Every structure is written in C-alpha cells, then in structure tokens.
Amino acid sequence: MARTKKAAEAAEKETTTAVNAAEKETKKAAKATEEKAPAKKAPAKKAAPKKTAPKKPAKAETKVNFFVEFGGVQVPVEEVVNNIKATIGKDAADIAVYLKPEESKAYFVADGETGEMDVFFC
Length: 122
Fold this sequence. Notes:
The protein is an alpha+beta fold. Among the domains are: 1-33; 67-118, no CATH class. 39% of the residues lie in helices and 21% in strands. It contains two helices and five strands, in the order αββαβββ. It has a three-stranded antiparallel sheet with strand order 3-4-5, with helices on one face. A two-stranded antiparallel ribbon has the order 1-2. Strand 3 (95-100) and strand 4 (105-110) form a beta hairpin. The mean pLDDT is 78.
C-alpha cells in the first residue's frame, strides 16, 4: 500500500503541475492575444450639432394705401408715382416726390433727374 499511496501522491502532483502549467500557458496565450490584437478604439465622438440662430420669420411687406386729399378730392400716392415713371419714360430706382396740392403740382427727383408734373385733384 505504501507504493500505491506514494504513486497516488506522485500522480496527484503531476496532475497539479500539469494543470498549473496549462493555466500558465492559457494566461500567456491570452496575454499574447491581447498584445497582438489591436486595442479597442474609443467610440468616435459625434460632432456636436452646430448651433444655429433661430430662424426669424420673413418680414411681411406692409401694404400701404396712401392718399393725398385736397379740396375734397383724393389722389392715391401710387398713382402719382406711376405718373412720374411714365413722365421720365423708365423705371427709377430712387424717386423723391414733393407734392404741392395748392399748386396741383408734383415736383420730383428720379435717379438724379428733376422734373415736375400736374396732379389733378378733381
């Protein structure tokens, strides 16, 4: 029995040694794999969304009905401007109008050209 006990102890030592060696080999292999494998990259940061100013509502153009009244008769200013354009023969980018109802005249400067025209309050 002495031999069997010694043999069993020796076999146990061999098994433990083999297991320990196998564990060491596994650890070495895992370490080598970690070293060879590319390191995991941190997830790419998404660009922060650009801050934009809140959209301003489009300015609605105000429609103005402007009349000059003299002697109980009304004349729309738009009509005076259209007559000035017809008088100079072209569309002007800049028009200044001086309306004198007591003289029934409109004096104007359109793109640097001066002129006058009659305005009828009838």
